[in-house]
Amino acid sequence: MRHLLRTRDLTRDEAIHILDIALDMAAVQNREVKKLPTLRGKTVVNLFFEDSTRTRISFEAAAKRLSADVINFSARGSSISKGESLKDTAQTLQALGADGVVIRHPVSGAPQVLAVSGWITAGVINAGDGTHEHPTQGLLDAFTIRQRVHGAGARGRGLDGVRVIIVGDILHSRVARSNVWLLTTLGAHVHLVAPPTLLPVDTSGWPVTTGFDLDGALAGHPDVVMMLRIQEERMHGSFFPSSREYTRTWGLDGPRFRALQPDTIVMHPGPMNRGLEIAPIAADSPQSTVREQVANGVSVRMSALYVLLSGERETATVSGDGATEHHAIQQRSAAQ
Amino acid sequence: MTVSEHTPTPPSATFHIVGAQLVTGEHADILLRDGVIAQVGTVTDAAGATRVDADGLVALPGLVDLHTHLREPGYEQSETVLTGTQAAAAGGFTAVFAMANTLPVADTAGVVEQVASLGASAGYAMVQPIGAVTVGLAGERLAELGTMAASRARVRVFSDDGLCVSDPLLMRRALEYVKAFDGVIAQHAQDPRLTVGAQMNEGALSGEIGMVGWPGVAEESIIARDVLLAEHVGSHLHVCHLSTAGSVEIVRWAKARGIRVTAEVTPHHLLLTEELVASYDPRYKVNPPLRRAEDVAALRDALADGTIDTVATDHAPHPIEAKECEWDAAANGMVGLESALSVVHEAMVATGLMGWADVARVLSATPARIGRLTGHGRPIATDEPANLTLYDPRGRSSFDLARLVGQSSNSPYLGRVLPGRVVATFHNGYPTQLDGVVRPAEEVAAAARLAEQRGRSDTPEDNGRHRFTRS
Lengths: 336, 471
Fold this sequence. Notes:
Chain A: Carbamoyl phosphate binds at residues 54-55, 104, 134, 137, 270-271. Helices cover 41% and strands 13% of the residues of chain A.
């Protein structure tokens, strides 16, 4: 694997491989010394054309725990706002000797343009592009579900038969897209619930079911309820009449939360609008994985950086057979 | 094809085209002398003529493009009247309609006269300016349509292309007003509110790759409104770059009802589909966007059955930096003059939907008629103006940078295998392209001056239209 641009492209074996390595990375983080020498001498650039402190520090922690040198590059605007162009930025990174570029960009497809442009030789990780994908978020969500569902027996397994509902602004959500492809590739059943205005006009090609009725979907006792953030700007675009009506119809409020099965898990990619799409009682309950998702994010991003930037990437990920690498990591872990 | 003279000096004013295939299928010699077609069939006296061997070549009337962005004045880094008409000559065109979205906008007599005279002195093709409908393309008040019509540029087609005249009252007034001088409003049909931030065709693919959709209904609703307005006020509406199957249905309905509506389709909407956008390569970014395969099929059928009247290139040059970036930041548009005939060949002729006579109709006669040109779009016949092009339909080749002679290279066809190539173009009797090579600027300009002295130019005053007359 040369780049990680979207979960749409990942095979089941590739996805499980990344999740299994993330398990090893998680084990490292429970130790007193949280650092591996794996990417020593490699340079990872966090190239953020859009503010996202959470995602940036997660990638930064991941890269540093693999001993990579990290450069944070906050590009001020893009060529849209007559700031620095993507090409000029890329050529700067190339001159700096970047081995890996983690890019967040407001325009869908910008990471792909960077990856295929020939402007840089670095591996590219998409850290969220426009309304397209956010593959490491999908991976950390899959990792989190897998841990909850399979516990200690998670290694090597998918999400077969797990029933997931994703609720909210599907139309503009890169998190939803990455989850749709990845979770279904891993065997989960995904049902999308949204106001009709916030579903894409045609999802017939998506391996999911869709509906407008949250209460009906919850009555089916899903294993996972994933709530998406409602962005401020949607409130003024006539997507729905008011935040009050949204909460009443599509929010995971107290009564809906209390009616869930006790083993249904509640997810949110953060940051949450408490009281809008999710009630505090749901967000802070033991069924909520919100904080686990943050911690797992570092493990999954360590795994992604490892798979892309360590010398063994080509053979191991193409074959999907991660056994050799696991072994290698575990040995390195033991040597610390 | 070979030309018997290989000298840097201008070829003679007489050309003997030998063995060309006419659009009727018959083979004929064609003699061009002093700017007119002197003889077609068996040429009896070719004394002093430059011989042009046209064995295997199709002779088409000079192509006419109703929709060209020449970019001058204001955007000379993309194209100039000179380079754009050189691209036209390379593509077999002898007349182009220059869109109004220049800087300053072509909304006054001064600008349109300037553009027309730049075209006349360059000499590669007739440049017929299109006037803006509204001042500054702002969509607020009418530009001086009558003054542009009465100017030396003799404007008959008006368009805010790039932007839609979305205000229904303003559109009604524009349609009504141009009746005074037999004008036509060419509408860029795009409801602005339904396409805020739009990046590509709205459908399954836009949802998957996360782009803001440009729904077909944003085009269709404006066309539906405009044909009803045209019916109400009895005016001629022309629909620019129609792109959806639904738009075809509306135009078909309007024509059946007797409404005076004409429509154009671009070469790229006849060949390319939205799947190309999944690459995020901005070469495929265009407005209206590439649509679905079923739209392409409907557009081809509509062109073949006459529902769509003409192919117009929407040649839209942009500098490299406008396409070498992320999708949303990239400019809309593709260059199209040099590739148009090969693309129409691929989409319409190779598929058996049309023959060469139909190609002559949709790329020459009809656009000239819609644009009220009299010296162009004429058949290849004795005493007609010597505007014609020779096309070699044989063989297929990769469309490469060498085929682009305009100033910009934002072609979606680079690297794509297309049939045929244009080998010669004659404008008012003198060559603008020979042996597949565009003739030098000085030679063409000199030939244009000579033609004008002989009274064989296509300046507007010469083609017999009267100002402010109702046809």
